[in-house]
Amino acid sequence: MRRMAAHHGQGIDLALLAAERVQDPHLRALARLMAAEQKSEVAIFDQWWRSWFGGALPPATAKDHAAMPGMIPAAELEALRQAEAGAFDASFIAAMTTHHQGAIAMANAAIREAGDVRLRLMSHAIRHAQRGEIELMRGSQGFAAVRAAVLNILLPAGAAPADGATAQRADALVDPSAVCRATPASAAGAATAGRQNPRPRP
After folding, report:
1. 117-163 per-position pLDDT tens digit
2. What is the pLDDT of residues 88-115, one digit of tens each?
3. Which of the chain's ends, N or C, has fewer CB atoms near its CB within 10 Å?
4. Cα→Cα distances 74→14, 40, 77, 79, 185, Å
5. How many domains is the chain partitioned into structurally?
Protein backbone atom coordinates (compact mmCIF):
# COMPACT_ATOMS: atom_id res chain seq x y z
CA MET A 1 0.00 0.00 0.00
CA ARG A 2 2.91 2.37 0.73
CA ARG A 3 4.27 1.79 -2.75
CA MET A 4 1.01 2.31 -4.60
CA ALA A 5 0.30 5.47 -2.61
CA ALA A 6 3.76 6.83 -3.46
CA HIS A 7 3.33 5.81 -7.10
CA HIS A 8 0.00 7.63 -7.14
CA GLY A 9 1.73 10.65 -5.61
CA GLN A 10 3.87 11.09 -8.70
CA GLY A 11 0.84 10.44 -10.88
CA ILE A 12 -1.03 13.23 -9.10
CA ASP A 13 1.88 15.61 -9.67
CA LEU A 14 1.94 14.74 -13.37
CA ALA A 15 -1.82 15.13 -13.71
CA LEU A 16 -1.90 18.51 -11.93
CA LEU A 17 0.91 19.77 -14.16
CA ALA A 18 -1.03 18.65 -17.22
CA ALA A 19 -4.23 20.25 -15.97
CA GLU A 20 -2.42 23.59 -16.11
CA ARG A 21 -0.42 23.14 -19.32
CA VAL A 22 -2.06 20.84 -21.86
CA GLN A 23 -3.57 22.46 -24.94
CA ASP A 24 -6.25 19.89 -25.74
CA PRO A 25 -9.39 20.51 -23.62
CA HIS A 26 -10.35 16.83 -23.49
CA LEU A 27 -6.89 15.88 -22.29
CA ARG A 28 -7.04 18.67 -19.70
CA ALA A 29 -10.34 17.32 -18.37
CA LEU A 30 -8.88 13.80 -18.26
CA ALA A 31 -5.84 15.05 -16.33
CA ARG A 32 -8.14 16.62 -13.74
CA LEU A 33 -10.03 13.34 -13.45
CA MET A 34 -6.78 11.43 -12.98
CA ALA A 35 -5.68 13.74 -10.18
CA ALA A 36 -9.03 13.51 -8.39
CA GLU A 37 -9.20 9.74 -8.77
CA GLN A 38 -5.71 9.08 -7.48
CA LYS A 39 -6.10 11.54 -4.60
CA SER A 40 -9.21 9.66 -3.49
CA GLU A 41 -7.41 6.33 -3.71
CA VAL A 42 -4.51 7.64 -1.61
CA ALA A 43 -7.06 8.84 0.98
CA ILE A 44 -8.58 5.35 1.01
CA PHE A 45 -5.14 3.80 1.46
CA ASP A 46 -4.54 6.07 4.45
CA GLN A 47 -7.90 5.25 6.00
CA TRP A 48 -7.41 1.52 5.59
CA TRP A 49 -3.92 1.70 7.05
CA ARG A 50 -5.24 3.56 10.11
CA SER A 51 -8.06 1.03 10.50
CA TRP A 52 -5.88 -2.04 10.11
CA PHE A 53 -2.54 -1.04 11.60
CA GLY A 54 -3.03 2.22 13.51
CA GLY A 55 -1.36 5.53 12.72
CA ALA A 56 -0.93 7.34 9.44
CA LEU A 57 0.15 5.62 6.26
CA PRO A 58 3.97 5.74 6.31
CA PRO A 59 5.86 7.09 3.32
CA ALA A 60 7.56 4.77 0.88
CA THR A 61 11.23 4.09 1.50
CA ALA A 62 14.05 4.65 -0.97
CA LYS A 63 14.03 0.89 -1.58
CA ASP A 64 10.31 1.05 -2.30
CA HIS A 65 10.82 3.84 -4.84
CA ALA A 66 13.60 1.92 -6.57
CA ALA A 67 11.35 -1.12 -6.95
CA MET A 68 8.31 0.68 -8.36
CA PRO A 69 7.89 0.25 -12.14
CA GLY A 70 6.85 3.18 -14.29
CA MET A 71 8.23 5.95 -12.06
CA ILE A 72 9.45 8.89 -14.12
CA PRO A 73 13.06 9.95 -13.38
CA ALA A 74 13.57 13.44 -11.97
CA ALA A 75 15.40 14.62 -15.08
CA GLU A 76 12.49 13.58 -17.31
CA LEU A 77 10.01 15.30 -15.01
CA GLU A 78 12.01 18.50 -15.22
CA ALA A 79 12.19 18.21 -19.00
CA LEU A 80 8.41 17.84 -19.07
CA ARG A 81 7.98 20.95 -16.93
CA GLN A 82 10.23 22.88 -19.30
CA ALA A 83 8.66 21.54 -22.50
CA GLU A 84 7.37 24.09 -24.99
CA ALA A 85 3.61 24.46 -25.21
CA GLY A 86 3.38 22.81 -28.61
CA ALA A 87 5.24 19.72 -27.44
CA PHE A 88 3.77 19.36 -23.98
CA ASP A 89 0.65 17.31 -24.78
CA ALA A 90 2.53 14.50 -26.53
CA SER A 91 5.26 14.48 -23.86
CA PHE A 92 2.68 14.26 -21.10
CA ILE A 93 0.86 11.38 -22.80
CA ALA A 94 4.12 9.46 -23.18
CA ALA A 95 5.12 10.03 -19.55
CA MET A 96 1.70 9.27 -18.06
CA THR A 97 1.29 6.16 -20.21
CA THR A 98 4.59 4.79 -18.89
CA HIS A 99 3.55 5.71 -15.35
CA HIS A 100 0.14 4.06 -15.71
CA GLN A 101 1.67 0.89 -17.14
CA GLY A 102 3.85 0.67 -14.05
CA ALA A 103 0.78 0.97 -11.81
CA ILE A 104 -0.95 -1.72 -13.87
CA ALA A 105 2.02 -4.05 -13.29
CA MET A 106 1.85 -3.37 -9.54
CA ALA A 107 -1.90 -4.02 -9.53
CA ASN A 108 -1.42 -7.26 -11.47
CA ALA A 109 1.00 -8.48 -8.83
CA ALA A 110 -1.49 -7.73 -6.06
CA ILE A 111 -4.34 -9.40 -7.97
CA ARG A 112 -2.24 -12.57 -8.19
CA GLU A 113 -0.77 -12.62 -4.72
CA ALA A 114 -2.87 -10.67 -2.20
CA GLY A 115 -4.39 -12.94 0.41
CA ASP A 116 -7.37 -10.72 1.20
CA VAL A 117 -10.12 -10.46 -1.41
CA ARG A 118 -10.55 -6.75 -0.70
CA LEU A 119 -6.99 -6.09 -1.75
CA ARG A 120 -7.49 -7.96 -4.98
CA LEU A 121 -10.70 -6.08 -5.74
CA MET A 122 -9.06 -2.70 -5.17
CA SER A 123 -6.13 -3.69 -7.36
CA HIS A 124 -8.52 -4.77 -10.12
CA ALA A 125 -10.27 -1.39 -9.88
CA ILE A 126 -6.95 0.45 -10.20
CA ARG A 127 -5.93 -1.65 -13.20
CA HIS A 128 -9.25 -1.09 -14.95
CA ALA A 129 -9.17 2.68 -14.36
CA GLN A 130 -5.62 3.11 -15.59
CA ARG A 131 -6.11 0.90 -18.62
CA GLY A 132 -9.10 3.07 -19.53
CA GLU A 133 -7.18 6.30 -19.07
CA ILE A 134 -4.43 5.05 -21.38
CA GLU A 135 -7.07 4.32 -24.03
CA LEU A 136 -8.52 7.82 -23.63
CA MET A 137 -5.09 9.44 -23.83
CA ARG A 138 -4.58 7.56 -27.09
CA GLY A 139 -7.77 9.10 -28.47
CA SER A 140 -10.16 6.17 -28.12
CA GLN A 141 -13.79 7.32 -28.30
CA GLY A 142 -17.28 6.15 -29.19
CA PHE A 143 -17.80 2.41 -29.67
CA ALA A 144 -14.06 1.77 -29.56
CA ALA A 145 -13.86 3.32 -26.09
CA VAL A 146 -16.84 1.30 -24.85
CA ARG A 147 -15.38 -1.92 -26.25
CA ALA A 148 -12.01 -1.19 -24.64
CA ALA A 149 -13.69 -0.48 -21.30
CA VAL A 150 -15.45 -3.86 -21.35
CA LEU A 151 -12.33 -5.73 -22.41
CA ASN A 152 -10.25 -3.95 -19.78
CA ILE A 153 -12.44 -5.49 -17.08
CA LEU A 154 -12.14 -8.99 -18.48
CA LEU A 155 -8.65 -9.32 -19.93
CA PRO A 156 -5.93 -10.82 -17.72
CA ALA A 157 -2.53 -9.31 -17.02
CA GLY A 158 -0.63 -8.33 -20.15
CA ALA A 159 -3.53 -9.06 -22.49
CA ALA A 160 -4.97 -5.54 -22.81
CA PRO A 161 -3.42 -3.26 -25.45
CA ALA A 162 -3.06 -0.56 -22.81
CA ASP A 163 -0.78 -2.79 -20.72
CA GLY A 164 2.03 -2.47 -23.27
CA ALA A 165 5.32 -4.30 -23.44
CA THR A 166 6.77 -2.04 -20.76
CA ALA A 167 4.08 -3.05 -18.29
CA GLN A 168 4.48 -6.72 -19.16
CA ARG A 169 8.22 -6.58 -18.49
CA ALA A 170 7.68 -4.62 -15.27
CA ASP A 171 4.99 -7.06 -14.17
CA ALA A 172 7.52 -9.86 -14.25
CA LEU A 173 9.88 -7.91 -12.00
CA VAL A 174 7.47 -6.61 -9.37
CA ASP A 175 7.81 -8.12 -5.90
CA PRO A 176 4.20 -9.19 -5.28
CA SER A 177 4.72 -9.56 -1.53
CA ALA A 178 5.32 -5.82 -1.18
CA VAL A 179 2.81 -4.31 -3.60
CA CYS A 180 -0.46 -2.93 -2.23
CA ARG A 181 0.02 -5.15 0.82
CA ALA A 182 -2.81 -3.46 2.68
CA THR A 183 -4.83 -1.97 -0.13
CA PRO A 184 -8.62 -1.78 0.48
CA ALA A 185 -11.41 -3.39 -1.46
CA SER A 186 -12.53 -0.97 -4.14
CA ALA A 187 -12.54 2.72 -4.85
CA ALA A 188 -16.31 2.82 -4.67
CA GLY A 189 -16.85 0.97 -1.41
CA ALA A 190 -13.58 1.01 0.44
CA ALA A 191 -14.31 3.95 2.72
CA THR A 192 -17.29 2.13 4.24
CA ALA A 193 -15.60 -1.25 4.23
CA GLY A 194 -12.58 0.10 6.08
CA ARG A 195 -14.79 1.12 8.99
CA GLN A 196 -16.80 -2.10 9.09
CA ASN A 197 -14.34 -4.85 8.23
CA PRO A 198 -11.52 -6.19 10.36
CA ARG A 199 -7.85 -6.08 9.62
CA PRO A 200 -6.90 -8.51 6.81
CA ARG A 201 -5.21 -11.75 7.66
CA PRO A 202 -1.45 -11.83 6.88
Report:
1. 888 888 999 999 999 999 999 988 888 878 888 877 778 887 888 88
2. 999 999 999 999 999 999 999 989 888 7
3. C
4. 12, 25, 5, 9, 32
5. 1
| Contact predicate 11/17, CB 8 Å | no
Q: What does the alpha-carbon distance between residue 59 and residue 71 come to, in Å, rounded to a whole number?
A: 16
Closest CA to 176 of 73, 67, 72: 67
pTM of the prediction?
A: 0.78
CATH code of the domain containing 115: 1.20.1260.10
| Within a domain: 57 | yes
d(CA 119, CA 13) in angstroms, rounded, equals: 25
Q: Cβ–Cβ contacts within 10 Å for residue 188, how many? A: 12
**Residues 17, 11: Cα–Cα separation, whole Å:** 10
